[in-house]
Amino acid sequence: MATNKKITRVEGSGKTASQATWKPTEENKSKATRNRVIAAILWVLAVVAQLIAIRHIIQVVPIKMWFVIVLIVVDLALAIVGSILWKKSNRLDPPSEKNKFLFFLQSQLGLFTAIIAFLPLVIVIFTNKNLDGKQKGILGGIAIAALVAAGLVGTDFNPPSVEQYTQDSNYVKELMGSDYVYWTKSGSKYHLYQDCQHLKGDRTTEIFEGGSVSDAYANNSRIKPTLESLCKTCENRAAKEKGWSPEDLEKAKEKAAAIGGEVVSDVVPEEVQLPAEETITE
Ligand SMILES: [Zn+2]
Fold first, then answer.
1. Residue 268 CA to ligand 1 centre (angstroms)
2. Cβ(236)–Cβ(243) below 8 Å
3. pLDDT at 198
4. 252 CA distance to ligand 1 centroid (A)?
5. Within a 10 A sphere around the Cβ of 14, how many other Cβ atoms?
6. 211 alpha carbon to ligand 1 midpoint, in Å?
7. Which residue from 136, 205, 218, 257 has the least number of CB within 10 angstroms?
8. Residues of the chain with pLDDT under 70
9. Which residues are within 5 Å of ligand 1 (an ion), measured at CB?
10. So what's the pLDDT on residue 255?
11. Which contacts qualify for 267-274: CB closer than 8 Å, 24 or more apart?
12. What per-residue confidence (pLDDT) applies to 261?
C-alpha cells in the first residue's frame, strides 16, 4: 500500500478492463427479458380491459357505472405492474444512448403505454352521447386520474443507460481497483467501504449487500443510476488513500465518462499508455 502514495494519477488502473463497454451478465439479461415479456402481456391485458369498457359504453344503454369503474381499476393495476417490471428490466439490461430516439422509446415505454391504455377511453367517455353530464364527470374524472397515475409510474425520471453504467463502473474501478460496492436495501447511495460510517450508522441491524455498481442499480430502485449516488464520504476516503487531489478526482471522473461515451478510441489510448506500469505496484 505504501507505493500508492507515490502515485498521483493512476491513469492505468484496470487498463484493459475499464476500456470495455459495460455489459449485463447472462443471468441479468435473461431476467430482464423475462420481465419484459411479462410486462408486455400485462400491458396487452390492460388494453383489453380498456376495450371491454369502451365496448360497454358504446353498446349498452344505460351503462353499468360500477362495471366501467372496475374495468378502469383493472386496467390501471395491469398498466402499473407492467411499468414497474419494465423499469426493472431496464435497470438490469439498460438501453444505449447512442440512438437517442430508441433510448427515449425504451426508457419511457411505460408512459406511452399509459397513454394507449387510457386516452381512447377518456375520449370515448367525453364524446359518447349516451352518457349524461354526471356520468361523464365521474367516469371521465376516474379515467383521467388513472391515466395520470399510470403515466407517472410509467415515466422513468432517471433512465439507466449502458453508457452511464460503463462510466460509473469505470469510476469505481479507478478509485478502488475493482467494481465492487456496498449498499443497504433502504439506502439511496452506494459505498466503496464496508465500514463506511453511513453504512454502520443507525442501520446496524439492516442487512446490506455487495456487488458491482450495476448490481446496486438493478437491486435497489432507490439508488439513481448516476455517479451522484456514490457516497461522498467514501469517494473522498478513496481519493485520500490514493493521495489524489480534487483535480485528480475530476480527471478520473472525466476519463471514466470518456470511456462510457463514443470517444473511446480518440481520447483514451495516449492517456492510458503512460503510467500503465504503475498498476503492477498496487
Ligand atoms: Zn460511504
1. 29
2. no
3. 86
4. 19
5. 19
6. 14
7. 205
8. 1-19, 200-207, 260-282
9. 191, 196, 198, 231, 233-234
10. 86
11. 268/19, 271/11, 272/11, 272/12, 272/15, 272/19, 273/12, 274/11, 274/12
12. 54
Query: Which cell goes with 85?
Result: 417490471
For residue 55, report the distance from its CA to the centre of ligand 1, in Å: 56
Q: Which three cell numbers stand for residue 140?
A: 371521465
> What pLDDT score was predicted for residue 264?
41
**Residue 70: all three cell numbers together:** 372496475
Task: Report the separation in Å between the CA atom of 230 and the middle of ligand 1, taken as the mean of its atom positions.
Answer: 8
Cα–Cα distance for residue pair 113/107, rounded to 1 Å: 12
Strand partners, 183: 209
Q: Give me the pLDDT at residue 19, please.
A: 56
d(CA 254, CA 264): 12
What is the CB neighbour count within 10 angstroms for residue 204?
Answer: 7
**Could you tell me if 140 and 125 are in contact, meaning their C-beta atoms sit under 8 angstroms apart?**
yes
